[in-house]
Every structure is written in structure tokens, then in C-alpha cells.
UniProtKB/TrEMBL annotation:
Molecular function GO terms recorded: oxidoreductase activity
Domain Pyridine nucleotide-disulphide oxidoreductase dimerisation, chain residue ranges per copy: 357-459
Pfam family, one: Pyr_redox_2
Top-level division of the source organism's lineage: Archaea
Keyword Oxidoreductase (UniProt): yes
FAD/NAD(P)-binding domain residues: 5-314
Name used for this protein in its record: FAD-dependent oxidoreductase
Family designation: Belongs to the class-III pyridine nucleotide-disulfide oxidoreductase family.
């Protein structure tokens, strides 16, 4: 009998691979090992659960354990794979009752990423969170809820929830001041979430603008909007320590010695790929520390695949390996690997780093290469232009200013990146730019795209087309 397909990790990439394989080849045995109790949940929805827009943790589950069983997938929660032996084709597993060696025919590493806390000292203090897991999100919401209104049963989660942890935070008095360390996705989204609980929110970002990967125009717009909404911004301020008192967060301290009193701290300084289980194997890592894979998600070791936040993909603009940990990338790569293992080789697809984020009423999107230094390092001669145009016909209700930045290569005229910010369906417009990058379109070709027009949806010249027209003019000079 063929050894089973073993999948390490029970979230987006792992369960996408398992589900696709089980549908296409139901006779193939599939075992998924997950070291935690939660499986198949939406990381990106956690700030909205904290805010209260998502009622229960169960609403963030894509698949319940029972639904996974119904698909013929054997999932073993609270079983951690601690090592891989690619010669013996086994994984070492530590479970709640015993440890054992599990043989595999094919192996899929989908171990995800871990929220970074270094170099922020004090991140182990009570009241410090990374918002990288449902227990963490539940604990924050519990801490924000007045004790006389808190009921752990109202959070959902069933047996997966760490009820003891959450109940401990639910017994605390809500914080008056919160410090957010890091102005990326998590920081900006959590500023909105905490503000909804009438907390005094301070956001610290070591660069001069929030969400720096979205470019200058978006960063400046977000900074202005956060200030309008009452968030205290500390830009160019690098936090090096969370201050504690009796084991609890009491404030933050910056490199320059300045401090702020706070009872709650959110640390959002990025993530690191979980690759420890393959470090002593022939499986190779890329420059960014994630697992290197080919176009089918296979590693340097035959029959060993990797997908999701622990693995690289290839960038559609540069053609080079890149590590951009995002939800669609993980789901798509996992599904492709599942289909490959079922007998139909399927490429995992390229990535452009397309991402969107909501900052209160402001919608932000980015894709491709925006940074001039990064573009030059990739061999391009970047030219960029930023425009502001209406989101709808000027006379139609709901029209809002939309700012678009497009970046192109001077020599070829090829579009290599873009960003968008605005209040009226700005974020979804980035998909047009992402599609153009995937197709390798020039700015001239983008300018001539036949985009839809009707007053409730767009002006005659969509903001993306306006930006392409202006950038094309710059390229022609």
C-alpha cells in the first residue's frame, strides 16, 4: 500500500491541498498534522472580531473539524511535527499522549509563519499581543470588555478556545490607553478596532509614514486620516521595549528614551516563516528564509512540497523568487499542489504582492514594485506618476477623490507596480493593475483598456486609466 500524503499544518495551504487531493483522488490516504487546536481559520478577520463586527470566532472558520472529516481527511490536532527525515521518508510527531514516526509517500510542508516580536523586549508581558491566532484575538476582546459584561461563552470557539487564558483577560478592567508597535497591516487595522472600544490609541512606526510598502501617497493619506480619527501617531519612532509592572504591560519605551504609559500593547512588526522542521534536511531555503520551491511547489527534495507563508513563490514582475505571505497565495498554492499530487501537474501561480488594507473609512491597495530602489535592483529604470481623480461621475452622489500611483520601466514601457487610496471602492480597483502586471502589459496598453463606465460606478475615464494616461505621457518625453 502507498504511504499516505502527510501534510504539516492545518490552515489555508495545508487544508486546501488536502481538500483538493481528497476530491480528485478519494482513495489516497491523507493525514494532516496540526500542532494547535484551531484549524482552517481566517487570520485576516481577527481585527474585525476584536472590533466586534464579527460576532463569534466560529464565523472566522472556513472549515470545522467535522467538515474536514466529512471530506475524508484525517486531521490530528495538537500533534506537532518536530522533524523530517527525507531519506527515511518519515516525520517525527509529538502528540498529547505519545511520540511516533509517521511514514509518508508525499510530504507537504504548510507550517505558516510566526509573528515576530524581536527586537521588542517585554513582549511576553501580560497585556502584550501579536494578533496572530484566534486565542490572541479573543483575549484582546475579552480584555476590552468590562468584567460585568464579559461571558466567555459569547465568544464561540467551542473546545478549540483557550478558555482559561480568555477568562483571565475577561476579569481585568479594560485599558484606557493602548500602544500599537508597527504601522503595517495589523497596526492600522487594530487602530480602528481599538478605537471602537473608546481606547486612547497610540501607533508607533519607525519609518516616517504608516504602511510603507504601499508607497508615499498611500502612507501620507493614511497618516492624515488616522489623525483625523483621533489616533495619536508617533512616526519615526522606534520602540525597543515594552515596560512592565507586576508582570503586566505598563507602557512602551522608544530608542530615544521617550516613554508612554499604556495598559495594552499590540506588537505588529512582521512575521517570519516557520521552517525549523526542514533546517536539517536537504530542503533548500531562499534568500528571505522561506522554503525554495519550483513552479509546482516542489522543493529541492523529490516528493516534498511547500506552500503558504513558509514558502516562496515567483514574482510576476521580476520573474525571481519572492516571499510575500498572503492569504490567496497560500490557498491557491495549496490547491495546486493537491491537484498535482492527484495526478494533474498544476503550477502554483505567480505573485505580485497584491494587497489591500482598510484604515477606518480609507481603502488602500498596492501591487507589484513601488519602491524605486527595489525597481532598480531588479533591473528596471522606474518612472512613476501620481494622480487624483473622482471615483464616480462628478455629479453622481458618493463621488470621492481617488489617488492612484503607477510605476513603469522607462525602457520597455512595461507597468511594474501601482497603489490606490480613497474612500469609495478604491481598494478593489487595484485588481485592474494586478491583472495588467500578470499580463505584462505596457502603460500604453493599460491606457487603452476597455474598462466599464456608468455614473454610479466610475467616471468615463477610470482613475486607473487617468493614471496610465499621465504616466504614458511622461514615458513619451
Amino acid at each position: 500500500m502507498t504511504d499516505p500524503v502527510v501534510i504539516v499544518g492545518g490552515d489555508a495551504a495545508g487544508l486546501s491541498a488536502a481538500s483538493k487531493l481528497s476530491r480528485e483522488d478519494p482513495d489516497r490516504e491523507v493525514i494532516v498534522f496540526e500542532r494547535g487546536r484551531w484549524v482552517s481559520y481566517a487570520h485576516c478577520g481577527e481585527p474585525y472580531f476584536v472590533k466586534g463586527e464579527v460576532d463569534e470566532l466560529d464565523d472566522l472558520l472556513s472549515l470545522s473539524p467535522a467538515e474536514i472529516d466529512d471530506r475524508g481527511i484525517e486531521i490530528r490536532r495538537e500533534h506537532e511535527v518536530v522533524a523530517v527525515d527525507t531519506d527515511a521518508r518519515t516525520v517525527s510527531v509529538e502528540g498529547p499522549e505519545d511520540s511516533f514516526e509517521q511514514p509518508y509517500g508525499d510530504l507537504v510542508v504548510a507550517t505558516g509563519a510566526t509573528a515576530r516580536t524581536e527586537p521588542i523586549a517585554g513582549s511576553e508581558l501580560t497585556g502584550a499581543f501579536t494578533i496572530h491566532g484566534l486565542d490572541s484575538a479573543a483575549a484582546v476582546r475579552a480584555m476590552l470588555t468590562p468584567p460585568d459584561e464579559f461571558d466567555v461563552d459569547n465568544l464561540g470557539g467551542g473546545h478549540s478556545l483557550d478558555r482559561e487564558l480568555v477568562a483571565r483577560y475577561g476579569a481585568m478592567e479594560p485599558p484606557e490607553t493602548a500602544a500599537i508597535v508597527g504601522g503595517g497591516y495589523v497596526g492600522v487595522e487594530m487602530a480602528e478596532a481599538l478605537d471602537a472600544w473608546d481606547v486612547d490609541v497610540h501607533l508607533f512606526q519607525r519609518s516616517e509614514r504608516p504602511i510603507p510598502t504601499f508607497g508615499e501617497a498611500v502612507g501620507e493619506a493614511v497618516a492624515d486620516h488616522l489623525l483625523e480619527r483621533g489616533v495619536d501617531l508617533h512616526l519615526g519612532a522606534e520602540v525597543n521595549r515594552l515596560l512592565g509592572e507586576d508582570g503586566r504591560v505598563a507602557g512602551v519605551r522608544c530608542e530615544d528614551g521617550s516613554t508612554l504609559d499604556a495598559e495594552l500593547a499590540i506588537v505588529g512588526v512582521g512575521v517570519a516563516p516557520n521552517v525549523e522542521i526542514v533546517e536539517n534536511t536537504p530542503v533548500e531555503l531562499g534568500e528571505g528564509g522561506a522554503i525554495a520551491v519550483d513552479e509546482y511547489g516542489e522543493t529541492a527534495v523529490e516528493d516534498v512540497y511547500a506552500a503558504g507563508d513558509c514558502a516562496e513563490d515567483h514574482h510576476v514582475v521580476t520573474g525571481e523568487p519572492a516571499w510575500v505571505p498572503l492569504g490567496l497565495t497560500a490557498n491557491r498554492a495549496g490547491r495546486a499542489i493537491g491537484q498535482t499530487l492527484a495526478g494533474t501537474p498544476t503550477e502554483t501561480g505567480g505573485i505580485a504582492g497584491t494587497a489591500v488594507v482598510k484604515a477606518f473609512e480609507l481603502e488602500c491597495g498596492r501591487t507589484g514594485i513601488l519602491d524605486a530602489d527595489e525597481a532598480r535592483a531588479a533591473g528596471f529604470d522606474p518612472v512613476s506618476r501620481t494622480i487624483t481623480a473622482g471615483s464616480r461621475s462628478g455629479y453622481y452622489p458618493g463621488n470621492e477623490e481617488t489617488t492612484v500611483t503607477l510605476v513603469a520601466d522607462r525602457d520597455s514601457g512595461r507597468l511594474i507596480g501601482g497603489s490606490i487610496v480613497g474612500k469609495d471602492r478604491a481598494a478593489v480597483r487595484i485588481d485592474t493593475v494586478a491583472t495588467a502586471l500578470e499580463g505584462g502589459l505596457t502603460v500604453d496598453e493599460v491606457e487603452r483598456l476597455d474598462l466599464a463606465y456608468a455614473p454610479p460606478f466610475s467616471p468615463v475615464w477610470d482613475p486607473v486609466l487617468v493614471a496610465a494616461k499621465v504616466l504614458n505621457g511622461a514615458l513619451e518625453k
